[in-house]
Design a protein that fits this description.
The complex is a heterodimer of chains A (about 170) and B (about 280). Chain A has about 170 residues and is mainly alpha-helical. Chain A has 5 helices and no strands. The chains are: A mainly alpha (about 170), B mainly alpha (about 280). Chain B: Keywords: Cell membrane, Membrane, Transmembrane, Transmembrane helix.
């Protein structure tokens, strides 16, 4: 699990850009999971509906804002990634922590607030939708937990390899 | 009553040649002026980039295609054609035309005293007000909300003046919105990236929400099936064009924050700090 030494050598500035690594991953994670949701569940499987008309108006606004934000975040997150790379400040493990936290956080919000409370649409229009909801939200929670572990493991005080084990 | 009747046309007359010519003519003129300016500019300056010229031609053609010809004809009774036309006129054409940097070209070829007048105009309060991202977004997306959620959509198909006004507004608002978000040409009072990004996100959200609203609540005279198709064209078509807008905005940010020296030494202090433990 420890970061590769080679990685540290090519990115010596990463300890000065801890939060930027986190933000880049987080934004990309939110954007990517929203894109995945659109591509797989809307377009390929046709499980989700564009608009199932049981949506509250609050839900319509929330969906619109999150959609626009995630669209922007995908691209913005990748440009931040490129910026970290050119500053020799990328910390891939921390970046992945951000990705999982963003993706899991968005999926949990989507699964609980947007699907259930605001009734934007359901995961699939079947009788046992509760099973789908459970898998959806457990996956989201798992992503958040793994992401949080990665982020905690990539703090500043853990920085120099070997030294913090003494 | 008679004055009202004077401007009140039936749908049949509206699909005739007059509104199409009136709306297409200005685009034809600006295409001509752009080429004229390129010829003058190339005499004194570095050759005007081919890419910008192509952007202008594509932008103008998209705009003309949306206000005249078969697509414009269909738009009178087919809502999906109307929506494709509006994506071209209000989003794609303004984007391509903004990328062609017309203001830069004009300032190159105008005599100095006229160029000074023009820059003074650009710095004037009304222009600064309208080109603020928030105001531009309200004019653009707010205008669309009024068009599709009030009786304006129906009225536009009955009155020539309203028809002209709505189409001119859709293009101009789209253009001002585009240049308020991405700075290709000189613009007074440049705003920061974060400010523009946040306003852009909210504006995109307003556009997406309206698309879904149309999907469920067809404007008067539009069938549910057509509204569903039109709403989805607006939603996904808008996303596609916004993708380019977001990409350009982020790329400008990326270029502007390029570190002066890539090998910065400012992190050297962090390692002893960590070793203190």
């Amino acid at each position: 699990m420890a970061a590769k030494v080679g990685n540290q050598d090519s990115y010596p500035n990463r300890y000065a850009y801890l939060s930027k690594n986190l933000w880049s991953g987080f934004l990309f994670g939110v954007g990517f999971i929203a894109f995945f949701d659109e591509a797989v569940f809307h377009q390929l499987l046709h499980w989700h509906h564009f608009y199932d008309k049981s949506t509250t108006s609050m839900g319509l606004v929330s969906d619109g804002l999150f959609h626009a934000f995630s669209w922007f975040a995908t691209i913005g997150g990748l440009f931040l990634f490129a910026d970290l790379h050119r500053r020799k400040a990328l910390w891939l493990m921390r970046w992945w922590g951000g990705v999982l936290l963003g993706a899991g956080g968005f999926q949990l919000y989507d699964g609980i607030i947007q699907h259930k409370v605001m009734r934007i649409h359901q995961i699939r229009y079947v009788e046992n939708v509760i099973v789908y909801d459970a898998i959806w939200n457990v996956t989201a929670a798992a992503m958040i937990i793994i992401g949080a572990i990665l982020i905690v493991r990539t703090q500043r005080h853990r920085a120099p390899e070997g030294e913090n084990r003494a | 009553m008679s004055s009202y009747a004077d401007i009140c046309y039936t749908g049949g007359q509206l699909s005739g040649a007059i509104p199409q010519v009136l709306l297409a003519l200005p685009f034809g003129l600006v295409l001509f002026f752009y080429f004229f300016a390129i010829i003058r500019s190339n005499r004194h300056y570095k050759k005007w980039p081919l890419a910008r010229t192509v952007f202008w031609v594509v932008g103008v053609l998209l705009a003309v295609f949306s206000v005249a010809g078969p697509l414009a004809e269909r738009a009178h009774f087919d809502f999906t054609a109307h929506m494709i036309g509006h994506l071209f006129l209000g989003m794609a054409a303004p984007l391509f035309m903004a990328l062609a940097a017309p203001m830069t070209l004009i300032l190159r070829v105008l005599p100095i005293h006229l160029a000074r007048h023009l820059t003074r105009l650009l710095k004037s309060l009304p222009v600064r007000f309208v080109s603020d991202p928030i105001v531009a977004s309200l004019l653009n997306v707010g205008g669309l909300w009024i068009l599709y959620t009030t009786g304006l959509y129906t009225a536009m198909h009955e009155s020539l003046l309203l028809h002209l006004f709505v189409h001119v507004h859709v293009f101009l608002a789209g253009y001002v919105f585009t240049i308020s978000m991405i700075y290709i040409d000189p613009i007074p009072r440049r705003k920061g990236f974060l400010y523009r990004s946040i306003v852009l996100i909210v504006a995109l959200a307003g556009h997406g929400i309206l698309s879904k609203y149309i999907y469920a609540h067809p404007p008067d005279g539009v069938s549910l099936a057509q509204a569903e198709k039109g709403g989805m064209i607006m939603y996904y078509g808008g996303d596609a064009i916004d993708l380019v807008l977001i990409f350009i905005l982020c790329m400008h940010w990326y270029k502007s924050t390029r570190p002066r020296e890539l090998a910065e030494k400012k992190v050297s202090g962090t390692i002893p700090l960590a070793a203190r433990r």
